[in-house]
User: What shape does this take?
Amino acid sequence: MTVQIYAHRGSSAAFAEHTRAAYLQALADGADGVECDLHLTADGELVLLHDDDVARTSNSAGSVAELTLAQLRTLDFSSWHGVVIPPDYGTIATQLLTLPQLLELLAAAGRPIALALEFKYGATFKPQLVDAALKTLRSFGWDSEKSSAGNIHVSFMSFHPDAVKHLAAQIPAAHLCQLLENVQVAGVREELDMGAITGRTAAFLMRRAMAEGERLIDDGVAQLAGPGVEYLRAHPGNAARWVAAGRVLRVWTVDTAEDLALCLAAGVEQVTSNRPREIRELLR
Assistant: This one.
């Protein structure tokens, strides 16, 4: 079985996540595909960022939704990683990427490359982000049935079942990935900085969403199953059932030999990694 490797936010162990350098390095590392998260700016531009605030990954703070693209362009999204950017990978000022810029970068790769777009939501799903991404893809000649634009094959991912269902009305199930995580109250409390009662409530809602997501995979609404490594460890029966039903497993985030061995034993066909070059070497 050939395992496909997706670079998680680019080769984000080598360079700051979601930057031009991280994606150029992913291509140089021989990744089969790249993954990214999308946010809409105040002026409606699609930018590659994981958080809804820029504080963790830049030299400033503020909500992405309240900043224009021009304002975001003034920030440094790479120096926090502590790695010097090679001249061929651009300057600090050019590291923030929009979705059109990423598509242009991948189109110039000179080989087939996969792109996994992740849409992040809180409790409420709103279609504007998804619809803006689809409009951008169509402007690049994207064919929704084949889900390809030239040498780029696109798949769509979300933890939010409503986002997956919204996409399913427009895109074949083979290109849709329902993401899943192993929800633990302690982990939710720590990640979201919540108290005991609020943390339990948030974990309950997240588990309910995960259960609905599992049903979407079972029912074939999404034919790509996207569990995290810890979910795979905690729910091996679900993974086995989906493999038997012909679903493709795309597991995140696989960075160690131990995690890779777990995936191979479970019949995983696609892995997402911060270290695509190292995972390729382990597969060899």
